[in-house]
Design a protein that fits this description.
InterPro entries: NT_sf, RelA_SpoT. Helix content is 64%, strand content 10%. With 457 residues, it is an alpha+beta fold.
Length: 457
């Protein structure tokens, strides 16, 4: 015959499941209320999560705490369960936990006869704030844990509110999943305690370091918002380098420096996602981090050839010259192969489309860095466009002669910009008509090509 306590547990879990829709609705209302309370403080650095206790967790708690001996009915047990609903306010740093707790005390400033505190804007949600915070747990560590209750459709529903920083969330996962859930007592309790204390101290140090980094970034951002964009790109570039340098070492036993390639890839990714505004940058950051998390688990062969789904062809001569040069070298030159191998894996889509998009990106990058508009002060739009195309063709010719990955780096683009802009200034200064340009253009093109080759090689 089955023990009576298991019949009781089964009845409790059935009652919980019957009430789950109602509890989920109450949980949502509580979460939305705390999001509203913290709206002004948030600034994008807070997250409020809610959950209704699971059946398995409830069973475990009933057995562990002997609730089957304390309560006579499922309704009585559920109504007295302090963490039937869990609300967690997630913040960045431990220091933020204290500030949020103080903010809640200021908001929930009116007290009822049962010792709960509430705000007159919503008398249905209350907190017990009289106790000391943070609370010291049995393991000796502290946590901001506050009991609360909610009146929902005439019923009182208990919830537990926790305020946790990033490192405390991680610590909670370690403690719960590694220690609390582990029934293999092969290590002495004192040893476990010492190890866990050491881990906690290291996490506190990490929290301090993260806050120092955040403070420094905020200082830079307050001076110039454009710094944040550069910081985001540098951060992701560093992550790309770290992921693929490790893969490279595991695959071929050595690491080739491709930091500048990583920088160019990140610049391309942000441009291809049209991330011009800071908000777009944040969205692209999250999207790219998720993609990098996926590719970090993929196997990469650095010795195989890159293939394309179709032939590559462009309408303009500049792009055709650039693409032909790269395609000839992509499976012969390790640096070109590495660059596009990484780019193709990060960017979803087929290789041919990604390659075409990158060549277009490189062309636009040059055109926006060269002041071709100046030509219109001396020539009409059609004539200025023709001269600009000849200068770009000269750049492409030098690209075919040098054939180096360095040509797509920022430092090379600055050189190209400087040389071509100097040529444009000379043209405006010395050429009086388009007819004169047609007679003398070879001199200016040869001079431009000569300077580019000397400075870029």
């Amino acid at each position: 015959m089955e023990l009576k306590l298991f019949n009781f547990i089964e009845n409790v879990t059935e009652y919980l499941e019957d009430s789950r829709n109602e509890l989920n609705a109450a949980s949502r209302d509580i979460r939305l209320y705390f999001e509203k309370v913290l709206e002004d403080y948030n600034e994008g650095s807070l997250n409020v999560n809610s959950r209704v206790k699971s059946t398995s967790s409830l069973k475990e708690k009933i057995l562990r705490n002997g609730y089957y001996k304390k309560y006579t009915s499922p309704q009585q047990l559920i109504s007295n369960l302090s963490d039937l609903i869990g609300i967690r306010i997630e913040c960045r740093f431990i220091e933020d936990e204290k500030e949020i707790c103080e903010l809640l005390k200021k908001h929930f400033h009116e007290q009822d006869e049962d010792g709960y505190f509430y705000n007159s804007t919503n008398k249905n949600i209350k907190l017990k704030l009289a106790g000391e915070q943070p609370q010291r747990q049995k393991n000796g560590f502290e946590v901001f844990r506050i009991d609360g209750c909610c009146q929902y459709e005439g019923k009182k529903i208990n919830f537990e509110l926790q305020i946790k920083s990033l490192v405390d969330i991680f610590w909670g996962e370690i403690e719960h999943k590694v220690i609390y859930k582990n029934n293999n007592y092969t290590l002495g309790d004192e040893f476990i305690k010492n190890i866990m204390t050491s881990i906690k101290k290291n996490l506190l140090m990490i929290d301090s370091q993260l806050q120092a980094v955040d403070n420094q970034i905020n200082k830079l951002n307050s001076i110039n918002p454009a710094n944040r964009k550069r910081q985001i790109q540098k951060l992701l570039s560093k992550i790309i380098y770290d992921i693929y340098s490790l893969k490279m070492e595991n695959n071929i036993g050595l690491i080739v420096d491709f930091k500048e390639s990583s920088d160019t890839i990140m610049k391309y990714i942000f441009r291809s996602n049209n991330a011009e505004e800071l908000g777009d940058y944040s969205g692209t950051l999250v999207k790219t981090l998720n993609r990098l998390n996926d590719v970090s688990r993929n196997h990469v062969s650095f010795t195989s050839e890159i293939t394309f789904e179709k032939d590559i062809y462009f309408q303009d001569e500049f792009s055709n010259m650039i693409s032909s040069t790269i395609l000839k070298s992509i499976n012969c030159d390790f640096n070109w192969n590495l660059f596009f191998r990484v780019l193709f894996e990060i960017e979803l889509g087929n290789n041919a489309e990604d390659f075409e998009n990158f060549v277009g990106f490189f062309k636009n990058l040059l055109e926006e860095n060269i002041n071709f508009v100046k030509l219109r002060s001396k020539f009409n739009s059609e004539e200025a466009g023709y001269i600009a195309n000849l200068l770009m063709k000269e750049v492409a010719y030098c690209f075919t002669q040098i054939d180096s990955i360095t040509l797509i780096y920022d430092r090379s683009i600055e050189v190209i910009k400087h040389v071509v802009n100097n040529t444009i200034d000379l043209i405006i200064r010395n050429i009086d008509s388009y007819q004169q340009w047609e007679k003398e253009h070879e001199v200016y093109l040869e001079m431009t090509g000569s300077k580019l080759l000397s400075k870029l090689t």
